[in-house]
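Design a sequence for this backbone.
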């Protein structure tokens, strides 16, 4: 078996698969991806797959726009990927949140997003299903959408594999050494793979991976939970809803069910030892919150819940670029709760940077070397106002 490559990617989540896909356009057989379990087995496969333009900063919105365009084009030209563009309604329920919401809407409009601010009574024009008694303000973007995140990973991986990228699943990288000539050796239980450049896309495990190279990253994986209901919506359609004040999001799923989530924790979790089952408190509170916001859900039962990890950085920005202390080591980590929605654009950006092309994206704020030392920090969610 070939064991020497120019580029190795550690991690087969949505980021690793997107990087593999974009690199494969020019470099196909020069690339290997090592995944400890199987494609999308980490955070990506557990995600809700929401793609929203209603974010708090321009750079991320531009990345979402690019990603949505890419998925739209792929879904028109290729089988196996579907973009559901049903819109997202954002709600706030306090007076203090109205101004930040309006500010965001103005910013989003100024860069061409079809987003509008709504008074509570206008929500009924979007959907009469949502209870608005306590709502103080709302915003709606008809272009917000969702994908099946597993489908997206497989779509990237299949195309990359067809262009020659080697995917080694069930291949956990257990050790990384550098030879005298600078080439990396990645040790798994079965093989040793050599490569000149290593790209770390290991999601919540990234901190553990860089410890093998004896440096720390300012990353904190944190737990977030979701659950799915029995069918109860019938033919009634609603857009996705994000109730910011009550930490609740709802996303319509096939067959008249709803995926409801949040339950985000503010403490660090160990990706190899966290509670994968949802907490009883979460399951109780999410159905109560859903009932208050979507009265029709009184006929619904939660059938399955789960939790997964998002990865926070001190300033809510990811770390993307070559690590200054380790030549040939590239980081693409720390995507918080917004990894799926930016993945197609991030993969292209990483591929441009690695191939020495100028990227058109604004990347200064993602500099992976911007934190001089790793200090403790508070976990702040990404998908908020
Ligand atoms: C419940 C939930 C809902 C979410 N909803 C959304 C949403 O609606 N929209 C959105 O944009 N984002 C959402 N997110 C966030 C999103 O899932 C993440 O930002 C994204 O999946 C990160 O992708 P990744 O490829 O960096 O990490 P991962 O998907 O975790 O991939 C990392 C991979 O690396 C592998 N790995 C780790 N260590 C090693 C090793 N030593 N050797 C080999 N392989 C290794 C892991 O097995 C894993 O497959 C949600 C997350 C959760 C948990």
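Sequence:
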């Amino acid at each position: 078996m070939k064991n020497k490559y120019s580029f190795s990617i550690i991690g087969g989540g949505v980021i690793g698969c997107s990087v593999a896909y974009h690199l494969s356009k020019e470099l196909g057989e020069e690339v290997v991806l090592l995944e400890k379990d199987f494609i999308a087995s980490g955070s990506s496969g557990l995600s809700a797959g929401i793609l929203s333009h209603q974010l708090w900063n321009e750079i991320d919105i531009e990345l979402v726009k690019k990603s949505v365009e890419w998925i739209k084009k792929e879904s028109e030209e290729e089988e196996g990927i579907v973009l559901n563009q049903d819109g997202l309604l954002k709600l706030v329920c306090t007076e203090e949140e109205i101004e930040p919401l309006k500010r965001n809407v103005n910013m989003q409009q100024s860069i061409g997003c079809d987003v509008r601010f709504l008074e509570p009574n206008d929500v009924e024009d979007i959907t009469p299903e949502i209870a608005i008694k306590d709502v103080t303000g709302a915003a709606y973007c008809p272009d917000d959408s969702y994908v099946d995140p597993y489908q997206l990973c497989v779509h990237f991986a299949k195309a990359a594999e067809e262009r020659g990228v080697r995917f080694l699943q069930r291949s956990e990288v257990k050790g990384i050494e550098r030879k005298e000539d600078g080439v990396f050796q990645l040790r798994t239980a079965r093989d040793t793979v050599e490569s000149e450049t290593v790209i770390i896309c290991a999601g919540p495990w990234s901190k553990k991976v860089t410890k093998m190279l004896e440096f720390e990253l300012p990353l904190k994986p944190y737990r977030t939970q979701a659950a799915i209901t029995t069918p109860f919506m019938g033919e009634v359609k609603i857009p996705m809803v994000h109730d910011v004040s009550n930490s609740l999001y709802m996303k319509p799923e096939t067959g008249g069910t709803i995926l409801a989530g949040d339950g985000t924790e503010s403490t660090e979790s160990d990706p190899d030892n966290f509670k994968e089952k949802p907490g009883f408190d979460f399951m109780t509170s999410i159905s109560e919150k859903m009932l208050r916001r979507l009265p029709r859900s009184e006929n619904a039962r939660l059938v399955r819940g789960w939790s997964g990890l998002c990865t926070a950085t001190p300033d809510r920005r990811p770390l993307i670029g070559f690590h200054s202390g380790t030549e040939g080591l590239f980081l693409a980590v720390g995507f918080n709760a917004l990894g799926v929605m930016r993945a197609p654009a991030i993969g292209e950006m990483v591929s441009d940077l690695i191939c020495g092309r100028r990227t058109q994206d604004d990347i200064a704020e993602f500099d992976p070397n911007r934190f001089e030392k790793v200090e403790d920090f508070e976990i702040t969610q990404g998908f908020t106002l």
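Residues 87 and 142 are 4 Å apart (CA to CA).
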